[in-house]
């Protein structure tokens, strides 16, 4: 096993996924915000709402194409860089990806063209339907991707097949209704809605600061702050934590995020700040808040949360148990290899029983492959080292999580303030608040990227929790191959990203195409209608 | 869930082999003309307006069409995990070249018209050219290599080890297949342009000229490849009887690398219809390009592509990805699929969603029906 290959593959995945996720959250949220704006237009007929739809729609389009471009890599990268992973779990992991294409991406991609090209060809209601279908497609897309990702975090509804040497699906419904996947879906899409809200809010605030497009900007802020407040509350309250107590490795992730080295008496205290030291198993200068961790982690006062050391000890036992399954697997393989020529693929009952009784821990035995080619010959020290490897890097998790939460809370405050001013203060926004809104535009992106780090680094050393170690998941490639594609993708993405930012800024500076005469004419008609004035047919 | 036992594993495997073909052909028929138009744009359009006309014929639809490719990747992952794992890690740099080229397309279409600079637009024209021509060429090269067998073997843990090199992929037969694939899609793109641009306009006229030459090269290349297969390339077959519902482990099936692929035409004579469709479709498409046919030309071109791609699949059946260095590692329909449950779940999903997709795609094409004219793209609106 070559660690350079593993590291390069991980670096490439992190790079391509983090790039992809610069564009996806905005797509998720902006598709809905645009559809909401168009709904208001269709319901009221006020031209300004159509102008808003078109303006935010243009920015949506510039962002959308890079989501599509970077998404292409994601669909094929598993096969390219993670070939063993693809073989090992494709039976389960591939299905949500394919259904994503069938149910969601086709919908989104087919109608997004019509959204831009269909203004003159479709009735108002038909065009509105198209806008909503694009939004629906984007969000369904996220659902299936997160079902796939949720399975990596908490693999349910599957079992290992010793002949085909891979995981196979036993219940599609378990995969579909995986609690971790459901929590992730709500958390991630809400984060996307916050991103789009902060974007619309910030850009509109910039217009107001310059006294441009005032009517359009104020309406945009009203929509974005209401949507953003609901979404930001949902991100935090329905956060990922709800899924952390469902399995051993999710418990390990939580313990690592909290730098909880030892099991505390319930309810555990929460470490607000500190400097975790992984080798010494201690957190320096820790600031504790009593009880809070127990409350967040278990929603109770008397359930204990296991600390890292306790979990490592348990994992050592699981490695030993996994070796029994591994031993059975090797015997089954030898037997089937000779029998297959006779057309016999049956597994002897005693081996089958030995395997099945211990197969839940098979993945733990694979952790030993880092230290020895034959896990059955592993020394007790190697088993101890492998058990220690089940602790993800604590320091980055601890801090990434805290920064993410801080950003999340500040976004709630921002949205709440603007919602209050929009709803109860007659859309009056003081200039310092507007300036703050502009500066806060990057905040949700930063939070989303940190969230990815927490979720994926927190899952280490596994690609699929407890099933397949990351180090075994890679393809048989040379470091040169990986270096070429890594440099290639970084260069290509960076150039495209710079071009995208340039165009975004150009179109934001240019501003919406506001037809003031059209809007005024509509307002006159509207007022006449309200005051019972007579309309001439020409109007 | 017992439902998935309703259809036996061997039947599910054949259905998913068939659906894999449907997806690849769906991709070639729809996104194929997008790639063709992308590759033709710098040549059929001499002025910015002409190029914009060409680009706007596919502007609203290419994005949906490309999903056939993405769905193809997803479906291979879900239904044929070993194929997904072996092919993409094996054809590694070729795959990177495809992705890098395809990535240029979404941005190229969307961003080209967003600045008024000539350099800017010329750059994107060539980006779109690369995004169309390079994948079209490499897909063919890949098929050419698959027909010869690919140098890989599977370890006892079923890790795929590819032992060839990137330049090894560029052998003469594979390059011939690449040329067939590229010229076939150029012909298809030209046929699309004749439908979507005004008859007699410079774009349509140039498309007809280039498209009919490309079609002729594709047809001649396809015939040559057939002869080459008959006399110059060994096929693969099972060395012993293989149960069609056996567990998915390629190493358990003995394979010989000898004899001819074309023996399939003796065993299943009806498959001759595929190459016949291929030749007739291409010949009629060339005739239509020369004689002024529009929609009919596009339909003939589709028939030709359908024939060519399905002839490859039918000739190789049940092989999917043979190994030249370790034949028993070859991936076949009987030993490289997903589990019965996954194939069943995916089949249900496909049966529900494919008709829905076809319905709304047809509706979108209907809404967008009509020729792209100069007046339309120079007027106000969202043209590219």
Short structural summary:
The complex is a heterodimer of chains A (539) and B (384). Chain A is mainly α and 539 residues long.
Structural class of chain A: mainly alpha
Please, how many helices of chain B? 13
Output the helix-strand order of chain B: HHHHHHEEHHEEHHHEEHH
Biggest beta sheet attributes of chain B: 2 strands, antiparallel
Distance between the termini of chain B: 50 Å
Tally of structural domains of chain B: 1
* SS field, number of helical segments of chain A: 18
- Note poorly predicted spans of chain B: none
User: What is the approximate shape of chain A?
Assistant: globular
Which class do the helix and strand fractions of chain B yield? mainly alpha
Runs of chain A in which pLDDT lies below 50 for 5 or more consecutive residues are none
Helix content of chain B: 55-70%
Radius of gyration of chain B: 21 Å
Notable characteristics:
heterodimer; A: 539 residues; mainly alpha; 6 strands; 5% strand; globular; B: 384 residues; two-stranded antiparallel sheet; 13 helices
Account of the protein in words:
The complex is a heterodimer of chains A (539) and B (384). With 539 residues, chain A is mainly α. Chain A has a domain at 3-246 and 395-522. Chain A has 18 helices and 6 strands. In chain A, the strands form 3 sheets. Chain A has a two-stranded antiparallel sheet with strand order 1-2. In chain A, a hairpin with a 3-residue loop joins strand 5 (462-464) and strand 6. In chain A, helix 1 (3-44) runs antiparallel to helix 2 (47-81), helix 2 packs antiparallel against helix 3 and helix 14 (394-424) runs antiparallel to helix 16 (443-457). The mean pLDDT of chain A is 89. Chain B has 384 residues and is mostly helical. Chain B has one domain. Helices cover 67% and strands 4% of the residues of chain B. Chain B has 13 helices and 6 strands. A two-stranded antiparallel sheet of chain B has the order 1-2. Chain B has a two-stranded antiparallel sheet with strand order 3-4. In chain B, strand 1 and strand 2 (160-162) form a beta hairpin. In chain B, helix 7 packs across helix 10 (273-291). Chain B is globular. The relative contact order of chain B is 0.15.
